[in-house]
C-alpha cells in the first residue's frame, strides 16, 4: 500500500516531506495526517516536514536540500529540478505511474 511504502521510506532513509500549505491550519492537517499514518513513529523527524505556499517555493526548497532523489507530483516542479537534482521521479508519468495504477 501507499502508506506501507511511506513508512518504509521513513524507517530507512533521511526523508524530507515538502508540502504545499497556505495556512497554519493546513500545516496542522498535514502533520496530523502524517501522524495518523504512523510516519513519525516509523522514523520521520518532525523537523523534516517543511511547507511552502507555492510550487515554485517547493522547488527552491528541494534545490537547497540537494537530495539524491526527489519524488514529485507536479510536472512543472519536476521539470524545474532537472539538472539540479540527480534523480527526479514524476509520480503519474509513464515511467512512474501512480500507486493505484
From TrEMBL:
GO biological-process terms attached to the record: peroxisome organization
Keywords: Signal
UniProt superkingdom: Eukaryota
Signal peptide feature range: 1-21
Xref: InterPro entries: PEX22
Protein name as annotated: Uncharacterized protein
Organism (species): Zooxanthella nutricula
